[in-house]
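Q: Could you fold this chain for me?
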Amino acid sequence: MPAIDQQTRTARPEVAELARRISLLAPSDGMFPLRVAGIDVYRSTRVGTEVTHALQQAAICILAQGSKSIGIGESVYQYDAGQFAVFSIDVPVAVQVTRATPSEPYLVLRIALDAERFSTLAAKVYPDGLPQVSESRPVYIGDADPAIVDAANRLLKVITQPTDAELLASFAIDEIIVRLLRSPMGARIAHIGQAESGMQKMARAVSWLRANYKRSVDIPTLANLANVSVSSFHRHFKAVTSMSPLQYQKALRLQEARRLMLTTMLDAGSASRRVGYASASQFSREYARFFGAAPIKDIQRLREQRLSPTASSANILNTRLHDRSNDVQRLHADNRAANSASESTRDQLHE
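A: Sure. Below is the predicted structure, expressed as structure tokens.
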């Protein structure tokens, strides 16, 4: 299927509808958890002036408006409106919103990826056996066809209705996964969650690294967890995460140290020891390479940004999470109007 340009994707009515629904559920900049656990929406009205480092958990994301750059290891991916991104594994990322304005903000729907659920549905979509693939990646990005976006709209519709959310949201999520598995990207993502797939083997190693990032990397233990030889472990791990085990651990350590300094007022030396560094000078060197500034300067800059009225989206999120009733009521009114005009949406959900 030929690639679709961003302007064409954004102009599609179902993508515009998804942007409208997300905008109502995310009335200000920040992340908004929804009524069903593991589902949230995010808004940003500003292009990022620098990359943001974070641990991206396995998830399905559907971008309704704007654009984002995603750096994983040495790879950089571009993610635009009308596309989906399936993050197959928990992985450190460097992200930057590259297209967003107050009138057309960056808007995305995120659904936590349940590997077991994904695996169960993949077996139904491919009853004769999963397709053979030669590559594994930490993220798969593709065009979200109308069926995928329509399913996402149905999810956000039922999630605003208290009596329907817990029961019907599950059907809508299953439909989104099935539609993804039937898309041109389906053969590549079908192995997510399969017990003995290379991706799931490396997921076990990643879980160990996340739980034990303060300890020295134990390659034989990781290889044993992944059920592969020590000699091939590095190759498999980098294929799935785009980085080596040591690079993965370093990213976890540095991100946690930064969080500790920013939120608990620890000094650089104390934070470095807390995350497993034996040498404060090594920590400072690696921190500066990773974040672009020495720990003291970086934390001072971040604190100044938090105090700035234009950069306090976290505070805006906390104060407005409890002030969404009017917007949600508007969405309810839209839903009632749509239901009175036609019952086709409900029928589609049960097909």
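A (continued): The chain has two domains: 6-191, 198-307.
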